[in-house]
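Troubleshooting log. The previous structure file for this entry was overwritten by mistake, so regenerating from the original sequence record. Sequence copied from the archived sheet and checked twice against the printout by T.R.
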Amino acid sequence: MRAVVFDMDGVLVDSEQLWDEVRRDLVAEHGGTWTDEATRALQGMSTPEWAEYLVNELGTQLAPEEAAARVIDEMRMRYADGPPILPGAEDTLRTVSENLPTAIASSAPPVLIDSLLTATGLTDRIRVAVSSEQVAAGKPAPDVYVEAASQLGVPAGECAAVEDSTNGLRSALAAGMTVYAIPNPHFPPDPDVVARTHQVLGAIGDLPAALGI
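Regenerated output below.
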């Protein structure tokens, strides 16, 4: 592997439950109805995609732009004292970035990616940070991973990706990367998709050894 690309939510930050809670509250407060499949469907979507979903699929009585703004504002408030970084994530990012070009490819908006980089002091070390807002389609499409590899200047097939969710795993696999899965304990990914990955890790701190660094 010549480079490593990390997902953020669920891999570096314990935030999947926060996103779910904030979106559920917004839908309930504005006339929508949450469905059983909504949580998994939303994971990996870009901001415009999930905002449209909240409105058009779940019936939230807001314009998509307003729904997105309210959810992101609430997430920013919850990150006010720093994002909930997962144990071992900061050390892993630091170790990997000292040995290989490193990127983040996330469905989170840039402002929340920046909050992670600022909190860890790794802004200058993580060469590339791409939000799916900045590409044509969110996960499970491969766009965000392809763009991260392009900005790193490394072919996607020579990059490792680290993911936790079904849609994220599908995205990285579709990009042609060597995928390390860290299954999200709150929202376990599809076992059939996990089976297609290169290796399943128990925790983010296991990654450096798996990469041989």
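Residues 16-78 form a domain with the DNA polymerase; domain 1 fold (CATH 1.10.150). Archived copy saved in two places this time.
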